[in-house]
Amino acid sequence: MSQIVQTFRTKYQSSRNFILYGLIGISAAGLDSLSFVGFRQLGIGLLIANLISMHLGMLFSFVFNTFVNFRKTDDLAKRATTFFSIAYAGMLLATGLLALQTQLLSIADLPAKLVTVMIVALVQYNLNRTITYKSGG
Protein backbone atom coordinates (compact mmCIF):
# COMPACT_ATOMS: atom_id res chain seq x y z
CA MET A 1 0.00 0.00 0.00
CA SER A 2 2.84 2.42 0.78
CA GLN A 3 4.15 2.02 -2.80
CA ILE A 4 0.75 3.17 -4.14
CA VAL A 5 0.76 6.17 -1.81
CA GLN A 6 4.33 7.07 -2.83
CA THR A 7 3.46 6.78 -6.54
CA PHE A 8 0.45 9.04 -6.03
CA ARG A 9 2.52 11.61 -4.13
CA THR A 10 5.18 11.65 -6.85
CA LYS A 11 2.63 12.09 -9.65
CA TYR A 12 0.73 14.75 -7.67
CA GLN A 13 3.91 16.71 -6.96
CA SER A 14 4.98 16.52 -10.60
CA SER A 15 1.56 17.72 -11.80
CA ARG A 16 1.50 20.46 -9.17
CA ASN A 17 4.96 21.68 -10.25
CA PHE A 18 3.97 21.66 -13.92
CA ILE A 19 0.71 23.57 -13.35
CA LEU A 20 2.37 26.12 -11.06
CA TYR A 21 5.23 26.53 -13.53
CA GLY A 22 2.68 27.37 -16.22
CA LEU A 23 0.77 29.81 -14.02
CA ILE A 24 3.99 31.51 -12.93
CA GLY A 25 5.07 31.71 -16.58
CA ILE A 26 1.78 33.33 -17.60
CA SER A 27 2.10 35.81 -14.72
CA ALA A 28 5.71 36.57 -15.68
CA ALA A 29 4.63 37.22 -19.28
CA GLY A 30 1.95 39.57 -17.98
CA LEU A 31 4.48 41.44 -15.84
CA ASP A 32 6.83 41.62 -18.83
CA SER A 33 4.09 43.07 -21.05
CA LEU A 34 2.70 45.53 -18.51
CA SER A 35 6.11 46.80 -17.45
CA PHE A 36 7.09 47.15 -21.12
CA VAL A 37 4.04 49.36 -21.71
CA GLY A 38 4.82 51.35 -18.57
CA PHE A 39 8.44 51.90 -19.54
CA ARG A 40 7.39 53.01 -23.03
CA GLN A 41 4.89 55.45 -21.47
CA LEU A 42 7.77 56.87 -19.42
CA GLY A 43 9.64 57.53 -22.65
CA ILE A 44 12.17 54.72 -22.36
CA GLY A 45 13.37 53.48 -25.76
CA LEU A 46 11.87 50.37 -27.33
CA LEU A 47 14.83 48.00 -26.98
CA ILE A 48 15.83 49.16 -23.50
CA ALA A 49 12.21 48.89 -22.31
CA ASN A 50 12.05 45.39 -23.77
CA LEU A 51 15.32 44.27 -22.13
CA ILE A 52 14.27 45.60 -18.73
CA SER A 53 10.75 44.19 -18.90
CA MET A 54 11.97 40.76 -20.06
CA HIS A 55 14.41 40.59 -17.16
CA LEU A 56 11.70 41.63 -14.69
CA GLY A 57 9.56 38.76 -15.97
CA MET A 58 12.48 36.34 -15.73
CA LEU A 59 13.31 37.50 -12.19
CA PHE A 60 9.66 37.14 -11.15
CA SER A 61 9.61 33.64 -12.60
CA PHE A 62 12.83 32.66 -10.83
CA VAL A 63 11.68 33.98 -7.45
CA PHE A 64 8.25 32.33 -7.56
CA ASN A 65 9.50 29.02 -8.97
CA THR A 66 12.27 28.94 -6.37
CA PHE A 67 10.30 29.90 -3.26
CA VAL A 68 6.73 28.82 -4.09
CA ASN A 69 6.78 26.10 -6.72
CA PHE A 70 9.89 23.96 -6.27
CA ARG A 71 10.76 25.28 -2.78
CA LYS A 72 14.50 24.92 -3.31
CA THR A 73 16.10 27.91 -1.63
CA ASP A 74 19.63 26.63 -1.07
CA ASP A 75 22.47 27.58 -3.42
CA LEU A 76 20.51 30.58 -4.75
CA ALA A 77 23.38 32.01 -6.81
CA LYS A 78 23.95 28.69 -8.56
CA ARG A 79 20.22 28.16 -9.12
CA ALA A 80 19.81 31.70 -10.47
CA THR A 81 22.73 31.29 -12.86
CA THR A 82 21.31 28.02 -14.16
CA PHE A 83 17.75 29.39 -14.40
CA PHE A 84 18.79 32.49 -16.33
CA SER A 85 21.07 30.44 -18.61
CA ILE A 86 18.12 28.19 -19.45
CA ALA A 87 15.96 31.27 -20.05
CA TYR A 88 18.52 32.74 -22.47
CA ALA A 89 18.88 29.39 -24.24
CA GLY A 90 15.09 29.34 -24.53
CA MET A 91 15.18 32.71 -26.27
CA LEU A 92 17.68 31.36 -28.79
CA LEU A 93 15.60 28.21 -29.32
CA ALA A 94 12.45 30.31 -29.78
CA THR A 95 14.16 32.50 -32.36
CA GLY A 96 15.36 29.47 -34.29
CA LEU A 97 11.98 27.74 -34.16
CA LEU A 98 10.19 30.88 -35.34
CA ALA A 99 12.59 31.30 -38.24
CA LEU A 100 12.27 27.63 -39.18
CA GLN A 101 8.48 27.66 -39.12
CA THR A 102 7.89 31.00 -40.81
CA GLN A 103 10.71 31.11 -43.35
CA LEU A 104 11.27 27.48 -44.26
CA LEU A 105 7.86 25.94 -43.59
CA SER A 106 5.78 29.02 -44.54
CA ILE A 107 3.68 28.83 -41.37
CA ALA A 108 1.90 32.07 -40.41
CA ASP A 109 3.42 34.14 -37.60
CA LEU A 110 0.82 33.58 -34.87
CA PRO A 111 0.48 29.79 -35.20
CA ALA A 112 4.28 29.57 -35.36
CA LYS A 113 4.57 31.67 -32.22
CA LEU A 114 2.03 29.52 -30.36
CA VAL A 115 3.80 26.29 -31.29
CA THR A 116 7.13 27.85 -30.35
CA VAL A 117 5.89 28.97 -26.93
CA MET A 118 4.58 25.48 -26.16
CA ILE A 119 7.80 23.76 -27.23
CA VAL A 120 10.10 26.20 -25.43
CA ALA A 121 7.97 26.11 -22.26
CA LEU A 122 8.14 22.30 -22.13
CA VAL A 123 11.89 22.27 -22.77
CA GLN A 124 12.54 24.93 -20.14
CA TYR A 125 10.26 23.25 -17.60
CA ASN A 126 12.08 19.95 -17.98
CA LEU A 127 15.52 21.57 -17.85
CA ASN A 128 14.64 23.66 -14.80
CA ARG A 129 12.98 20.71 -13.06
CA THR A 130 15.94 18.39 -13.62
CA ILE A 131 18.85 20.84 -13.41
CA THR A 132 17.97 24.12 -11.68
CA TYR A 133 15.72 22.62 -9.02
CA LYS A 134 17.29 19.22 -8.50
CA SER A 135 18.00 18.43 -4.86
CA GLY A 136 21.23 19.85 -3.54
CA GLY A 137 21.45 22.71 -6.06
Provide key terms for this protein.
137 residues; 2 domains; globular; single chain; mainly alpha
> How large, in whole angstroms, is the Cα Rg?
17 Å
Portion in strands:
under 5%
Query: What's the structural domain tally?
Result: 2
The ordered string of helix (H) and strand (E) elements is: HHHH
Oligomeric state, counting identical vs distinct chains: single chain
Mean pLDDT reading: 92
| Unreliable runs | none
Major sheet attributes: none
CA(first)-CA(last) distance: 32 Å
Tally of DSSP helical segments: 4
Helix/sheet category = mainly alpha
Shape: globular
Proportion in helices: over 70%
Number of strands: 0
Q: Could you characterize the architecture of this molecule?
A:
The chain has 137 residues and is mostly helical. The chain folds into two domains: 1-60; 72-137. Helix content is 85%, strand content 0%. The protein contains four helices and no strands. It has helices spanning 2-41, 46-69, 76-104, 109-132. The radius of gyration is 17 Å and the shape is globular.
Quick overview of this protein structure:
The protein has 137 residues and is mainly alpha-helical. The chain has helices at 2-41, 46-69, 76-104, 109-132.
Write the layout of secondary structure elements.
Elements: H1 2-41, H2 46-69, H3 76-104, H4 109-132
